[in-house]
Prior knowledge:
The protein has helices at residues 9-25, 29-46; strands at 6-7, 53-55, 58-62, 68-74, 79-86. By secondary structure, it is α+β, with helices and mostly antiparallel strands. The chain has a single domain, classed as 2-Layer Sandwich (YaeB-like fold). The protein has a 5-stranded mixed beta sheet. Helix 1 packs antiparallel against helix 2.
Amino acid sequence: xxxxxxxxxxxxxxxxxxxxxxxxxxxxxxxxxxxxxxxxxxxxxxxxxxxxxxxxxxxxxxxxxxxxxxxxxxxxxxxxxxxxxxxxxxxxxxxxxxxxx
Length: 101
């Protein structure tokens, strides 16, 4: 992953699980998922406010090819990725990962 965003451990686990699943379906598909995700991370790092706020300070960015969304908050120094979730399987799970206020 790139250094312009902070990816929390649970979000990293989301990515590993999804990439492994895609790779099991077709060789190279997991790598394609990671490449698209890295490109989205770069877009988030470059201008995080271009993505809609979906609740308070949480934002959502959608992958184009894969049915996944990246949920993040804008930290003091850089965006913090809190979840990378499939949009048809528990898409609201990101709410549990926000820092308590």
